[in-house]
Amino acid sequence: MTGQEPPRNPQDDDGPPPPDTGMGMTAVAYLIAGMLVWGGIGLLVDHWVGTKGIFAGIGAVVGIGGGVYLIVRRLGA
Amino acid sequence: MTGQSTVLAADVPFPPSVEDFYLPSIVPWGGHDSYWFTKITALLWISVALIIIFFLVTYRKPKLVPTKKQWIAESIYGFVRNNIAVDMLGKRGINFAPYLTTLFVFILLMNFWAIVPFAQISPNSHIAFPAVLAVISYVMFIYIGMKHHGGLKYFKHALIPPAPWFILPLLIPIEFFSTFIVRPFSLAVRLFANMFAGHMLLLVFTLGGFAMLNANVWFAPFSVVSWAMTIALTFLEFLVICLQAYVFTVLTASYVQGALADEH
After folding, report:
1. What domain range is A43 assigned to?
2. How close is the nearest chain A Cα to the Cα of B171, in Å?
3. How do residues B22-75 score in pLDDT, each as one tens digit?
4. Nearest CB to B90: which of A13, A32, A38?
């Protein structure tokens, strides 16, 4: 149908993905999501316990750690 | 400066506001109680009609040695199929090439209205259009994932990363949030915000030129600078238009790729 043939050797699943396949976006999304989710949960805990933000802080740090771990496992492997 | 431009400048509101995105009604002309048909609506239908007619005409009698129009249509399709679909999805990408091409061409044309003289606003600068496109991509990648992995197994695949069990409670909420909540928002907002900001920038510099012309005789020469900036920014807009259409398509393909990915 089209002039060009589709590429003969599309990259197989084991090879590295081509550049600019949204990996940067995924990484940033993991970082922000980690911070927001666990920071948010920490904020709720703060609200519940009556502290002024210590759990939100801990949550954000833990969440961003989780985000980094996810990036390493999902994108770095 | 000439009297005419001063008169013209007198009724130019500055600075521009969000109100400038809500255009007057066309049918009924200038009506205030019915906004079912505005320039945005007109541009949307013109875009749809243009795309349908263009591809019908160019593919009507395909020749082995393509005519110029056929060559253009084939190049667009070939670009999306080879550089986006097959590159990211492998052989299965060919199945998605028609949808991705439609998406790419539609967003490109809808964005392009932002710099077409007399149209000069993109329907995508209203969040409704990017939102619907994002919902389509969202439903599609979830459906494809469920079909590929078999129902709820997809969610197990998407939510549970390869990690030791004691860290999973920490990771699963992050996975859920980033995959099923952030994705549609970031898709829609990225396209919308780019088109909104582009239109706003052009408005600021165009109307700013008039405002300076109107303000003070010493400011008047700088209105020329402002309009020169408008021209430069129009070229920047062109870059943004193409880039955002490409990014939306690539990200949709990347989400489908994630849904189709097997365990590793």
Report:
1. 23-75
2. 6
3. 888 887 787 777 788 888 999 999 999 999 999 999 888 888 888 888 889 999
4. A13
- The tokens of B154 are what? 């997809």
One-letter amino acid identity for B191? L
Per the structure, the count of domains in chain A is 1
As given in the structure block, the two tokens for residue B162 are 């390869």
What's the confidence (pLDDT) of residue B1? 38
**Under a CB-based contact definition with an 8 Å cutoff, are residues A46 and A55 in contact?**
yes
Residue A5 within a domain: no
> What was the pLDDT predicted at A19?
52
| Residue B225 tokens, joined | 């600078």
Domain membership flag for residue A46: yes
How close does chain A come to B94, measured CA to CA in Å? Answer: 8
Q: Running DSSP on this structure, what letter comes out for residue B148? A: H
In a domain, A9, yes or no: no
Nearest to A25 by CA among B102, B190, B135: B190
Contact A62 B177 (CB under 8 A): no
Residue A6 lies in a domain: no
ipTM over 0.90: no
Contacts of B169 in chain A (CB under 8 A): none
The per-residue pLDDT for range B144-173, each reduced to its tens digit, is 999 998 888 888 888 888 878 888 888 888
